[in-house]
Recover the amino acids of this structure.
């Protein structure tokens, strides 16, 4: 019938309506009361991506609730998704508000199992002129209607089976996972939501809404602020300052009654808070005493509903004041004028708040609501926070050294990049304040596991609640470890950003081709931007690296959940590591049978491989070898375990403040490079000896014992260049103050770059591992392949094609070395030294020719890709036919 519509505009409008109708998957319209519906409120579940012209990023699905008491929307990025529900004050465009928050939540959730979700509701019957309590109760009543209708369209799980909601026709697949979290205006509503879930018999019980009375109170734990402080500490540690022992100046947005600001400003006793503001007051303390001000901040934090007006002004430094934001003019003291570079005796509150944001200080800590920093090229209207237009400043005008984004949306992506360009240190809100959502996810996963034990009668509800409470510190440790590793990964990428621009650009293009990103929306560089960076020998700024990292994790997670890699029995350790020790010990079966087992493993692996191996490695290997992302991750796990990398990483991390941060970065970079070579070696041989593809379990069985023996005494078989290089690396780190054991382990990774080859040869020819290693290093010295391997590892490629050429040369060289050692050790029975000597004598003429060529090249200056390529081809062409 649409074909008969004459007007182009009418046709477009009708097609939009039609797409919205056909994209609607479920509704409560046909329910007959009870749990399913309030008589006058409708709920629709919509497959958002099927709606024409849907604003990007289009969610996986959304539920729209509309009635006389409340309207709202819940947007999900995928079938297993979580995020907060907020009490919105934007009746005309709340979906736009929620969509913007969803975009940030999607990348923030890369550290946890569910993907991003976000919801918001607008109460339509708030009492006009009502008291604070009356408005609060009306809002909570609206929230209850909203929650009930979200659950009413969601499948349940009863006795392990999916049970669709009554009288709801489903045009989609099973969809039972619905969890929510607190957000703006709903901080105290978790128990309310859980009571509804329990009343409706929803399978998640009190895991439906995290942070309730039997969950983890984020403010009491201070978990969001503590996670953000991990970022702050890293920034300053890499600049040579210890925030826990050295004084530093801070300005911020928030007050001590707030969760993130209040907890954050108590995380160091050396903070000198010189200025801050919230929606009520402006706090100014030009020259604070750290001890006195810390104690007073602590008093305010512990005072219910405190404000800056409750601060004891007698404790302020000379000239300090606490101003009311509603005042018309503020009279400034000489000390305030000097500290904030103001050249007049009075100003408006807005002018003073701008001066606070632009202060000369070390740290700007965001802990309050609002967007206060933008890019110079952005207009205030682009930001979408009209209330703060008169206060907002540009990122390249800031004079602080570090920004800590404890709050959401304090600074736009363009503002972050402007600040980065002038040398400021900043990540992004979805990195710095991910601790809260991470903590909530741990809570939900724990409750799902323990819920099975409660239902089976192996655990009482009271004991479960007590166990959850006892594990508060264990959960916090898991969360803060994620914060630590994510910020470390960004620092590692930033240190190599200019050299890795081509790889980062390739990853951006891949993610764009796959429809995972929209560059403009995700704050990632355009092709013109990339070309300018390459011309100036620059890399992606730190905030872009943060965004790219999260999107890379999401891509790896998706690849893993679509593969059978996560089902390998060897990954049970990864599953258990996601839970605190007390649960691991007593509830192992409940962990093994966890409903989100595969997703938990995939999440942990996607984070581990990107955090430790780098943003692009698994993508590079997939592009080069066609192995697939999941297979590359399996190789990562195998190499990590075979070479004991976890222990090495922990050892390097333990050197915080003991060795210079740049040395730690170098140590991690060397481990990452060794990891790449070993993964390449494993992936280059896709099959086991019997012709079947290797699995994680089979790789560990084949190589585990041999490598353990080799690495127990790594120096014993080493000779020549390999031994010299090992000693040089080890001694360099020790001289910088690093632990000798860790330094030796790092040096051994380079020395045993062919460790898998050595163990494979020992297994194939039934030689002892020590003898095989001696034979390998004798052959390497005699044939010059030790020099070739070192040269390949030291060369810096100029472009992606050089990098691919080096990878191919490494593969070819490994094949030649494997053939040589197999040929030399074939006559089993004599000592390896004798066998190698005999082999060398047999091939002495060819080897002499090769040796002269290598010597000529070494004498002719630094090796290039072309020269090394010639050497590898020569080696392969002359030797392989004889082996």
């Amino acid at each position: 019938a649409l074909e008969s519509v004459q007007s182009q505009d009418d046709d477009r409008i009708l097609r939009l309506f039609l797409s919205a109708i056909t994209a609607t998957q479920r509704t409560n319209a046909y329910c007959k009361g009870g749990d399913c519906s309030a008589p006058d409120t409708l709920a629709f579940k919509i497959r958002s991506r099927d709606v024409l012209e849907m604003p990007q990023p289009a969610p996986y699905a959304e539920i729209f609730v509309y009635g006389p008491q409340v309207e709202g929307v819940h947007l999900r990025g995928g079938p297993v998704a979580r995020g907060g529900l907020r009490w919105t004050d934007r009746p005309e465009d709340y979906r736009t508000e929620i969509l913007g928050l969803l975009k940030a939540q999607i990348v923030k959730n890369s550290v946890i199992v569910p993907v991003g979700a976000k919801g918001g509701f607008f109460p339509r019957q708030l009492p006009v002129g009502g008291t604070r309590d009356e408005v609060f109760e009306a809002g909570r009543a609206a929230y209850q209607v909203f929650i009930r209708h979200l659950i009413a369209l969601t499948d349940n799980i009863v006795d392990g089976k999916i049970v669709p909601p009554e009288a709801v026709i489903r045009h989609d697949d099973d969809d039972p996972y619905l969890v929510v979290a607190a957000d703006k205006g709903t901080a105290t509503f978790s128990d309310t939501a859980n009571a509804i879930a329990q009343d409706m018999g929803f399978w998640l019980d009190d895991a439906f809404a995290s942070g309730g009375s039997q969950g983890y109170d984020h403010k009491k734990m201070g978990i969001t602020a503590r996670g953000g402080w991990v970022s702050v500490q890293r920034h300053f540690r890499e600049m040579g300052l210890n925030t826990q022992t050295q004084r530093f100046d801070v300005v911020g947005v928030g007050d001590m009654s707030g969760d993130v600001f209040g907890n954050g400003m108590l995380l160091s006793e050396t903070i000198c808070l010189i200025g801050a503001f919230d929606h009520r007051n402006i706090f100014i303390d030009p020259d604070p005493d750290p001890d006195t001000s810390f104690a007073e901040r602590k008093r305010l934090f512990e005072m219910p509903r405190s404000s800056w007006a409750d601060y004891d002004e007698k404790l302020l430094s000379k000239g300090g004041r606490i101003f009311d934001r509603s005042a018309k003019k503020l009279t400034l003291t000489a000390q305030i004028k000097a500290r904030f570079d103001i050249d007049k005796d009075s100003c408006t509150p807005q002018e003073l708040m701008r001066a606070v944001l632009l202060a000369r200080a070390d740290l700007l800590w965001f802990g309050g609501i609002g967007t206060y920093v933008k890019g110079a090229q952005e207009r205030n209207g682009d930001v979408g926070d009209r209330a703060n237009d008169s206060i907002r400043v540009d990122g390249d005008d800031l004079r602080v050294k570090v920004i800590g984004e404890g709050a959401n949306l304090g600074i736009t992506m363009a503002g972050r990049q402007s600040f980065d360009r002038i040398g400021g240190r900043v990540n992004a809100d979805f990195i710095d304040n991910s601790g809260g959502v991470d903590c909530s996810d741990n809570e939900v996963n724990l409750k799902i596991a323990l819920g099975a034990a409660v239902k089976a009668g192996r655990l009482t509800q009271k004991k479960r609640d007590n166990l959850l409470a006892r594990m508060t510190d264990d959960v916090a440790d898991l969360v803060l470890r994620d914060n630590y590793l994510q910020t470390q990964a960004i620092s590692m990428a930033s240190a190599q950003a200019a050299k890795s621009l081509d790889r980062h650009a390739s990853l951006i293009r891949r993610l764009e081709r796959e429809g995972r990103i929209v560059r403009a929306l995700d704050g990632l560089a355009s092709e013109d931007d990339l070309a300018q960076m390459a011309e100036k020998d620059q890399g992606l700024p730190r905030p872009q690296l943060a965004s790219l990292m999260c999107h890379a994790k999401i891509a790896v997670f998706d690849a893993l959940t679509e593969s059978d890699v996560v089902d390998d029995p060897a990954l049970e350790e990864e599953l258990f590591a996601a839970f605190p020790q007390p649960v691991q010990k007593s509830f192992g079966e409940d962990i093994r049978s966890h409903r989100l087992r595969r997703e938990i493993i995939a999440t942990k692996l996607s984070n581990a491989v990107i955090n430790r191996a780098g943003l692009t490695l698994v993508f590079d290997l997939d592009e080069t070898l066609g192995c697939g992302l999941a297979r590359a991750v399996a190789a990562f796990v195998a190499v990590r375990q075979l070479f004991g990398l976890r222990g090495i990483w922990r050892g390097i991390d333990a050197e915080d403040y003991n060795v210079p941060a740049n040395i730690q970065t170098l140590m991690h970079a060397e481990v990452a490079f060794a990891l790449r070579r070993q993964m390449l070696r494993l992936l280059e041989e896709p099959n086991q000896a019997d012709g079947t593809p290797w699995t994680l379990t089979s790789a560990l069985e084949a190589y585990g014992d041999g490598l353990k023996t080799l690495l127990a005494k790594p120096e014993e078989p080493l000779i020549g260049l390999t031994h010299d290089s090992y000693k040089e690396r080890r001694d360099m780190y020790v001289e910088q103050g690093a632990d000798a054991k860790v330094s030796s382990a790092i040096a051994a990774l380079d020395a045993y770059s062919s460790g898998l080859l050595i163990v494979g040869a020992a297994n194939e020819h039934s030689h002892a591992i020590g003898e095989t290693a001696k034979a390998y290093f004798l052959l390497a010295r005699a044939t010059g392949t030790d020099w070739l391997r070192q040269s390949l590892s030291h060369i810096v490629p100029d472009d992606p094609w050089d990098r691919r050429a080096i990878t191919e040369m490494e593969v070819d060289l490994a094949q030649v070395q494997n053939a040589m050692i197999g040929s030399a050790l074939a006559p089993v029975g004599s000592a390896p030294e004798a066998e190698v000597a005999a082999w060398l004598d047999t091939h002495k003429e060819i080897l002499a020719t090769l040796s002269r060529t290598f010597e000529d090249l070494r004498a002719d200056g630094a090796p290039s890709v072309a020269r090394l390529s010639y050497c590898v081809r020569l080696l392969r062409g002359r030797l392989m036919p004889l082996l």
Remarks:
- The CA atoms of residues 281 and 308 lie 6 Å apart.
- The chain has a mean pLDDT of 93.
- The first helix runs from residue 8 to 22.
- The radius of gyration is 30 Å.
